Amino acid sequence: MRIGGLATGMDIDKIVGDLMKAERIPLNKMEQEKTWLTWQRDAYRDMNRSFDQLESMASDMKFSDVYNTKTTSSNMADAVIATADPSASGGSYTIKVNKLASSAINTSRSSITNDGETLDLNASLESQQSKFKNGINLTNLNFTLTTYKEDGSSSPIDFTITKDMSMNDIFDKINNSDVGVRAFYDRQADKVVLERTKTGNFNTSGEYLGAEIGFDSGNAEIITNTFGIQNKVDDGNGNWIKAELGGEDAEFTYNNALTINSHENSYKLNGVNFQFNDTTNGKNASISVNNNIDHAVDKITKFVAKYNEIVESANMQVSERKNRDYKPLTDKEKEAMEEKEIELWEAQAKKGLLSNDSAIESTLFSMRNEWYETVETSGAYKRITDIGIDTSSNYRDGGKLLIKESDLRAALKNDSESVYKLFTGEGNTKGITQKLEESLSNGIKQIEAKAGKSTSISNNFRIGKELDTIKDEMRDFENRLNQIEDRYWSQFTAMEKAIQKMNSQSAQLMSQLG
């Protein structure tokens, strides 16, 4: 703890403080330089984030569905609806749905429990055996279910059942297997249900009378006897017929010429996916497929708007002059100011952070050229002016683009594929978006070399190295200032001691003379 002025009456603390203010001037300049470099680094990174956003949008603009998204409509939407891929041909289609695809289903022929009995689906089969109308053979519970694949080949799966399992355990085994069958018990009907999990007719072999869920009493006694589900029944005339219902393919007629069967209630033709919800009762459903002009216009407009936004911001920052009357504030200076005053001051001090930056200027110049260059593809449109996009005639706009929407809509309506090729190129020919991506990528790399990114190590980019150097210089200078301050105090302390000694001698002399 330092106390001065006891002998001299001088405010030594203030004197040393004033002297140190002069000594700290170089350190204040270093602190201001450090703040400026930090602001500049952050401004560069903000610019790179903007470039990265535009690059991402340019990449998205390379997808064909931006330009060729299709809309569909149906005059019988309750029966047939459609969706179209970007590659689908526009125009009208007719669909007559003769039959819907259905899932195969087989159920108990009658109730399976004795009158007045209620099954506990979670209890063991052994505990429930007296409740089954047709009984249950606890020594022969295993069974095999057979279903069929797309190519018509059979796919039998064996199920091992024990007497301590419950009915729900059996159903879970079936439902969780790869057999493709859903099994459950309906208490109200008192019946077991076996149902295919997908629609269609896959059994073309004739096995099990063509049933989609195959089994027989020899290897499925619990199914055929206890649960009362049969593969075949007598038609009343002594003929065996399939007991299973459903399991049929959908059938439809396309453009009054082509009749097609489908395992599912949907079918894809020429890039158009038709969904069947009902039969059309012998009538034709009319489906229209058209280009979604609104979607393409919206995407292109947003892309151009983002480009213009970044061009405006970048041009403003590289042309902005540094305000040399406003230096970055030191921590000491901020202590004497209000928050609003600091905010207003720093708004002026931050001007010109990216003034005349060559990396940003070259990126802007390169991007402007990419928009204007001819794109030689097989498409009808070679330049952006062909589709209603042109440069602003106001030189102050710095190369902003203007869209004449009516011309853009006309180009998309007449030949959306050519608009797509203009933006994305063809073969070895690069389109506008690919060229923009390259320009932006090069610009981002140049800026990262100067300012890095949030995950960069400081010694890997220029400003980071400069900041490290300034921090080291500030630390060394702080140590030197401490030494200087100690020296001042030592000098003033010596002076105080000398004056104190002189005062003591003077007082002693006066007392002797007095």
Walkthrough of the structure:
The structure is a single chain. The chain has 514 residues and is α+β, with helices and mostly antiparallel strands. It has three domains: 12-66 and 294-466; 70-100 and 249-291, no CATH class; 103-242, no CATH class. Helix 1 (12-60) packs antiparallel against helix 12. A five-stranded antiparallel sheet has the order 1-15-3-11-12. The chain has a three-stranded antiparallel sheet with strand order 2-14-13, with no helix packed on it. Strands 4-8-7 form a three-stranded antiparallel sheet. The protein is built from twelve helices and 19 strands. The protein is elongated, with a radius of gyration of 43 Å.
Protein traits:
single chain; 12 helices; five-stranded antiparallel β-sheet; 514 residues; alpha+beta
Q: What is the gist of this entry?
A:
The protein is of the alpha+beta class.
Largest sheet: 5 strands, antiparallel
Strand content: 15-25%
Put simply, the count of helices is 12
Radius of gyration: 43 Å
Percent helix, as a range, is: 40-55%
Q: Distance between termini? A: 38 Å
Identify low-pLDDT runs: none
Structural class: alpha+beta
- Give a count of the beta strands, DSSP E runs of length 2 or more: 19
Q: How many separate structural domains? A: 3
Strand order of the largest sheet: 1-15-3-11-12
Mean pLDDT across the residues is 90
Coarse morphology: elongated
